[in-house]
Amino acid sequence: MRARGGVGALVCAVLLASSAPALGKRAARKQPLAEAPAPPALSKPPRLVHFVEATLPPTFTLKEPAEVVLTIDVDDAGKVQSVAVATSAGDELDQAAIAAVRQFVFEPGEADGHPVPVRITYSYRFVPKAPPPPPPPPAGAAAPAVPTVPLSGTVLRKGDRTPLAGVSVIAVPAAGAGAEGGGERRAVTDESGHFAFDALPVGDYELKLRSPTTSAADSPLTLHEGRALEATYYLESKERYASTVRGRRPVVETVEHTLSLEEVKLIPGTQGDTLKAVQNLPGVARAPFGIGLLVVWGSAPQDTRVYVDGVNIPVLYHFGGLRSTVNSEMVQSLTFVPGGYQADHGLGLGGLVEVGTRHPRSDGYHGYAQMDLVDGSLMLEGPITRDLSFAVAGRRSWLDATLPLFTSSSLQLSPVYYDYQARVAWRPTAHDDVDFFALGSDDKLTLTAKVKDDALTANVGSHIFYHRGIVNWLHRWENGATLTVTPAIGYDVPLQVGVAFGTVPTNIDTRTLGYSTRAVLRVPVAAWLRLDGGLDYEGNRYSVLHTGVPAPSTDPLAAAGSGGTAGSGGFSGGVSGFATDQLILYSNALAPFGVANFSLLAGRLVLTPQLRLQVYTFAGYQGSPGAFTHTYFSPEPRLAARFRVSPRWTVKAAVGLYSQAPDASAFSQVFGNPTLEPQRGVHYVLGGEVDLTRTLHLEVDGFWKSLSRLVVASEGPTGPLLDNDGVGRVYGGELLLRQELTRNFFGWLSYTLSRSERKDHPDESFHIFTYDQTHVLTLMGSYALPRGFQVGLRYRYVTGNPYTPIATAFYDSNTDRYMPIQGTPGSARVGAFNQLDLRGDKTWTFNRWRFAIYLDIQNVFDASNPETVSYNFNFRIQRPITGLPILPVLGVRGDF
Amino acid sequence: LKAAAAFFLAFLLAVCLAACQSSNALPASFVAGLRVIAIKAEPPEVAAGASSTVNMLAVDTSGRAITMTWNECLLPPRPGEAVNPDCITSTTGSFFTPIGAGPMVTAMMPQVTADELGQPDSTGGVYLPLVARVSTDADSLTATYRLRLAQSTTVNHNPTIATVFVVSDAGNPTLDEGVPLIVHAGDQVTLGDSFADGSAESYMSPAAGAVVTETLTTSWFCTAGQFSVDKTGGQQPTTVLRLDANLPAVGSTIDLWAVGRDERGGTDYVHRTLQLQ
Question: How many cross-chain Cβ pairs, A to B, lie less than 8 Å apart?
Answer without folding.
Answer: 251
